[in-house]
């Protein structure tokens, strides 16, 4: 699948210098966000105790909070944020759709609906939610593309967005119907449903980690091929691109990333939409740089949003899915109104 395809445009000297420096800075910012995520919380814990909990665990309550609560949610937040950022970039590149992201195209809702059904029918919990999430994500991806491409017209960005919105509405109705009628399901997923890192432990991370890592590696390997696809299917084929294989690899990457991320943290909206656009400001259209940036910036956004959600309310926490929705919704409206929307 690797190609010697040219980049869509030759980057300027300034951009060639800024890209690696910016990526190093972004990784540094992510490290700071991860440190704050471990240090900051509803219960104030001195930095010295945080360090001692990581290096010299003594079993105290404060040390247990650091090790069993904050460290796992920080690790999960980093991987889930990277997965959602990558999935959004991948979907926007393949569909040439600036509105594509797992939430708007209904993939998150498909995974969530399958998880709710699994809890309702089989009483699934923890690691038992992983495969239902994958199946739901795959079903939603196929259904949205089929609905968006139905008829004589092709699957335009607006048609795909409308199909995804319609399917998500139907699936949300199914989810709420089950939750309202069944107290057991409601208790199991009421916080998971809004997108949350609260209470996630390392057992869940270890269950989804292989899928997340494979999805991230597959996606990063697709960068040169996606550059060729940006030139159009005919020209890409003349350059040696295997179009069906690239599309199949992209679909596998999206399903792995979205299914694993949703199984770990619930449906989180707008990260996959706004992060690729933010990364594109720095990298331009070159997917070889855009994809790593999307991963790092997505991890930064989700980790920072989770930290802010812990301290924004004096007596409680605001779930990370609510924070990203509050930030992402206005940006989504601005993006739809922008004349630059179609310039991918």
Average pLDDT? 83
Regions with little confidence, pLDDT below 50 for 5+ residues: 1-6
**Ends distance:** 22 Å
Given helix and strand content, the structural type is: mainly alpha
Amount of helix: over 70%
**Assembly category:** single chain
How would you describe the overall organization of this protein?
The chain is mainly alpha-helical. The protein contains 14 helices and no strands. The chain has helices at residues 13-39, 47-55, 61-95, 107-122, 130-148, 157-181, 183-189, 202-221, 223-229, 233-238, 243-265, 271-283, 287-311, 320-337. Helix 9 (223-229) packs across helix 13 (287-311). The longest helix is centred in the N-terminal third of the chain and has 35 residues, at 61-95. It is globular, with a radius of gyration of 20 Å. The two termini are 22 Å apart.
Task: Summarize the structure in short.
The protein is mainly alpha-helical and 344 residues long. It contains 14 helices and no strands.
What's the layout of helices and strands?
Blueprint lengths: L12 H27 L7 H9 L5 H35 L11 H16 L7 H19 L8 H25 L1 H7 L12 H20 L1 H7 L3 H6 L4 H23 L5 H13 L3 H25 L8 H18 L7
Helix pairs in contact: 1-3, 1-13, 2-3, 3-8, 3-11, 3-12, 3-13, 4-5, 4-6, 4-11, 5-6, 5-11, 6-7, 8-11, 8-13, 9-13, 12-13
Protein name: Iron chelate uptake ABC transporter family permease subunit
Pfam family, one: FecCD
Subcellular location: Cell membrane
């Amino acid at each position: 699948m690797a190609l010697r395809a040219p980049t869509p445009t030759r980057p300027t000297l300034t951009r060639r210098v800024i890209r690696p420096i910016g990526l190093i800075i972004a990784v540094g910012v992510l490290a700071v966000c991860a440190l704050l995520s471990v240090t900051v919380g509803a219960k104030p814990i001195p930095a010295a105790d945080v360090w001692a909990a990581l290096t010299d665990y003594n079993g105290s309550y404060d040390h247990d909070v650091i090790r069993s609560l904050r460290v796992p949610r920080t690790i999960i937040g980093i991987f889930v944020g990277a997965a959602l950022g990558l999935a959004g970039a991948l979907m926007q590149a393949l569909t040439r759709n600036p509105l594509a992201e797992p939430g708007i195209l209904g993939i998150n809702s498909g995974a969530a609906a399958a998880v709710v059904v699994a809890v309702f029918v089989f009483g699934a919990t923890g690691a038992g939610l992983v495969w239902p999430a994958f199946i739901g994500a795959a079903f939603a991806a196929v259904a949205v593309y089929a609905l968006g491409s139905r008829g004589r017209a092709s699957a335009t960005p607006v048609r795909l967005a409308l199909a995804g919105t319609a399917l998500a509405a139907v699936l949300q109705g199914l989810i709420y119907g089950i939750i309202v009628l069944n107290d057991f399901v409601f208790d199991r997923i009421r916080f998971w449903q809004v997108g949350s890192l609260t209470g996630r432990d390392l057992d869940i991370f270890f269950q989804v980690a292989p899928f997340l890592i494979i999805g991230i590696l597959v996606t990063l390997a697709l960068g040169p091929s996606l550059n060729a696809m940006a030139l159009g299917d005919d020209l890409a084929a003349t350059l040696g691109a295997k179009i069906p294989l690239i599309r199949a690899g992209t679909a596998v990457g999206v399903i792995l990333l979205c299914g694993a991320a949703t199984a770990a943290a619930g449906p989180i909206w707008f990260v996959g939409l706004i992060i690729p656009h933010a990364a594109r400001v720095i990298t331009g259209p070159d997917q070889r740089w855009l994809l790593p940036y999307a991963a790092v910036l997505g991890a930064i956004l989700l980790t920072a949003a989770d930290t802010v959600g812990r301290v924004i309310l004096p007596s409680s926490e605001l779930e990370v899915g609510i924070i990203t929705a509050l930030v992402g919704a206005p940006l989504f409206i601005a993006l739809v109104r922008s004349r630059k929307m179609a310039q991918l």
